Every structure is written in C-alpha cells, then in structure tokens.
Amino acid sequence: MSRIAALSLESELAAQVLQVTEDTVVVADEDPHVCAFNHSAELMFGYGAEEVLGQGLSMLMPARFAERHRHCVAEFPAEITISKIQMGKKVLLAAIIRDISQLKQIEETLRASESKCRQLFDEASVANVVLDAETTGIPSSNPATSALLGYSREELSRLTAHDVTSDETRPLGPGIRRGSADSRSCRLAL
User: N or C, fewer C-beta in 10 Å, the chain?
Assistant: First the structure.
C-alpha cells in the first residue's frame, strides 16, 4: 500500500470513528469556528453538522456563557475534556463532551436515600452502631445506643466494640451488666 493510500485510509478511518463514537466530539479552530461536529453532537445540541460547521463555537454555549442561545431549549450538566491538536501550523481544540444529567440524577437519588437511611438510623428506638470491620471502631451510633450504654455519640466514636462488650477483661460503660462474648461475635448483655 502506498503512503498516500495509507494516509487516505487513515483519514477515512478517523472520520468513521468520529461519527460512530457515542461521545460528543466538537473540534474548533483558533478563531474559534467549528470544523468537526459528529453525529452525537447533532443529537446533543439539536443542530445538523451542516448548520454548525464554519460557525462560531459560541452558538453551542448556553446563553449565560455566550451571546447567542443554543438551539436546544435546556441547559445540561456536562463533563468536557478539551485537547489541543497541532496540525502543521494550525492549532485545533477538540472537545469530548458527555451529558452527565443522568449521573447527577443518580447522585441526587443516592443523597436522598442516604439521608433517609441516616434518619431511620438516628430515630430507631433500638441501639444501632456501625462498626469498622478492621479496627472494630464505632464511627457511628444512634441516640438509642448512647442512652443504653451511657456514652455520648462522640465518646462512642472514640471506642471500639471491645470497649463496650461484656467480656470480663474489657471495660464496660455505665448501665451494662456482665455477659458473654466469644471470639466470633460480640454481644451486649444488659
């Protein structure tokens, strides 16, 4: 294969990869005018490539960042990676854009779920603790645990499960009777 044929094949391959990638790719020159706009960009921004190529990059930006509105109605959270490409004397900027709206929704759902779990944990009428699996420390406990053991939540956060178990050789908190504990589990006896 000749060098020219190889370059032509490489160029065609790059163009095809640009069009089939699911990531949005927008390339602009130094002016900055759009010089590449893939299919995913068309779907994201609501413009066809023929409408965007040669136009100012500002047409793709939200109104608060540019003089013109985007064709799309809504602004969306995005993750953008920008790379500088040197092509001879010409400098291009390639932006790979990912709409992270769904990720933001998942994060908000997770925050709400964590908040609800924290509320249930804190409001439970039975003693609940979170134990560190390696150190048996008590990074978190609920008010019912404090009431039962006689330690504040802050004091409990500095203790380990061994400090509050009923093993004869371990110190006990106020209000705890002696009981039993074996090496496989810890049990509080009241």
Answer: N
Q: Are strands 129-130 and 140-141 parallel, antiparallel or unpaired?
A: antiparallel
- Let me know whether 68 and 129 are in one domain: no
Domain tally, the chain: 2
Rounded Cα distance, 149 and 144, in Å:
9
Higher pLDDT, 75 or 29: 29
Structural domain for 76, as ranges: 3-99
Catalogue the E-assigned strands of the chain: 24-28, 34-37, 78-87, 90-99, 129-130, 140-141
Q: What is the pTM of this model?
A: 0.58
Examine the domain organization and report whether 87 and 13 are in the same domain. Answer: yes
* Tens of pLDDT, residues 68-102: 545 554 688 999 999 999 988 999 999 999 999 99
Asked, for residue 109, whether it belongs to a domain, the answer is no
Q: Residue 115 and residue 98: Cα distance in Å, rounded?
A: 28
